[in-house]
Prior knowledge:
Elements: E1 4-7, E2 10-13, E3 18-24, E4 30-36, E5 43-49, E6 55-57, E7 65-70, E8 75-80, E9 89-96, E10 113-114, E11 118-123
Parallel strand pairs: 2-11
Antiparallel strand pairs: 1-3, 3-8, 4-5, 4-9, 5-6, 7-8, 9-10, 9-11
Amino acid sequence: QVQLxxxxxxxxxxxxxxxxxxxxxxxxxxMGWFRQAPGKxxxxxxxxxxxxxVTVYADSVKGRFTVSRDNGKNTLYxxxxxxxxxxxxxxxxxxxxxxxxxATIFFxxxxxxxxxxxxxxxxx
Length: 124
């Protein structure tokens, strides 16, 4: 099983930026960021697959968040700009051995491994 370690969470004022990182113990075909706010279901935020052209964002973060990966370092990133109070959540990194499509990249069950989560708090 792949080991995942997130970092980069913290507290920031609305309009600010944070960059999350997820270091994986080895390369996997697909990786994604999910988040869960108190009392809400976990939702997909951004995902990236080895399948050509598959980089997906939730509508709520499009234009503000950018997902990227450094395959040489087996690390996934999430650059979060123009943060809003509603972005407050615990953010989780996940990895899958499959080359997920844009239709499945936000399916939690498609992922084999999960990180422990990192808290992001945005104050308005």
